[in-house]
Structure formats: C-alpha cells, structure tokens
Specification:
The chain is of the alpha/beta class and 243 residues long. It has 7 helices and 10 strands. A 7-stranded parallel sheet has the order 1-10-9-6-2-3-5, covered by helices on one side. A 3-stranded antiparallel sheet has the order 4-8-7, with helices on one face. The longest helix is centred in the first third of the chain and has 18 residues.
Amino acid sequence: MAVKTVVCETLEKWTNAVADEIQKAVEEKPDLTMILATGSTPEPVYDELVKRCKEGKVSFRDLHSYNLDEYVGLPASDVNSYRYYMENRLFRHIDADPKNLHLPNGMAADMEQESRDYENALAARGYADFAILGMGMNGHIGFNEPGTSADQKTHVVELTQSTIDANSVNFNSPEEMPHKAITMGLYTILQSKTILLMVRGAKKAEILKAALTGPVTEQVPASLLQKHPDVIVVADAEAAALL
C-alpha cells in the first residue's frame, strides 16, 4: 500500500497542503489531466488556487480537467448543477482554457452514450495524471456507492437515499433533488497516476479509518485506494483522530 497521510491541525494548513500538492503537479506537468471534485470539502482549496493564480504563483493555462460527476436532469445554469459550482468556484477565476474544462452533460439525450463518450475522452488522454477526491460518509467516491464494482467505468447511477438526504439540503425542497447522476466509475478513477483524498471533520473519522486500515472491499469504495500505487490523504486532525 502506497498511501501517504498528511494530518493538518488547522483549516488553513489543510487547505495549503492540498493546494500545494495540486500546484506541484501542475508545475511538473503544465498540460496535466486532472480529475476534480465538488462539494463543501474542496471549496477552500479552490478559493486558494484562485488566489494563487491571480497572484501569478500558478498557471492553469494548459490544464485539462474532468469532473467526477454531475446530476442528471439539471441544466448547467441551475445553481445546484456541478457545472454551475465549478464555473463559479474555480473555472471563471483562473487562466484555464474553457474548452479544456470538462464535466459530464447531465442533460444529454442519451445518457448511456454520454457515459461512453466521457470515459473515452478521458481514456484518450491516458486517463488522469492527478485526481482530487472527497469521500462520502459511507466511503463513496464520486457517486460510486457501496457495492459498486471496482471494474465499473463512467455510468449513470440511481442515488441512494442516504446520498439524497445528504445533498438535498442544497435544494429548496427534497423533491427538487435529482435521483440520478452520471459519475466516473471506480475503474476510471483508479487509473489516475496520483490520487489525493481530501478529508475533513470528525464525522469522517470512522469511515476514514475503515478506508485506510480496514479490508479492501467494494462495500467501502474508498478502501480500494489501498491498492493504488500513489495516494496522498490530506486530513484534518478531527478526521484523522482514529488513525
């Protein structure tokens, strides 16, 4: 197992630790292919990367990014779509070329074809050089819930009730929350040359312990990272409390 764990005492240190790894990866290979995540966990990281880019400390001019997932049925203009999140949190504030910043199209007429096309686009670039991931309370990565096959490629998923409950707080009402998403599969993600797992908060302590020290099982999708040759886990002290 090649998992390097970095534990940070403050949010500022945690944010800089993640941003430093991303900046180093971009400096080593300016045209790298990167997998990006959404949600509350990476928000301070994206803010820091925007700041560094505006200060001229890092450039994303040649970056090619592919987001992990997107809700099915939400247009890019919807405030809860991941395209909207990425545009407002990161993309429009950095010097990247918009045509190189990819998300699955949750409004595609044929979602199965969209899944294949998205997988093939990433595969054509030799999959990702660097992936930044968050992790759900049940160890899910992207929308790959417990029980997802490690051989799964990009696909459309029915969201579990626990994920709907966790994410529906962002919607005006639970009824507005989509019940399907398109997500990279575990196979797709695990092809990445380097993976950085971002974990914050005491509520993630149990699942982080299970993911890093428990058995490797599809029932805890993040545990599959134990078999990957190059993983960096950046956790705050609360999330790392049980390690």
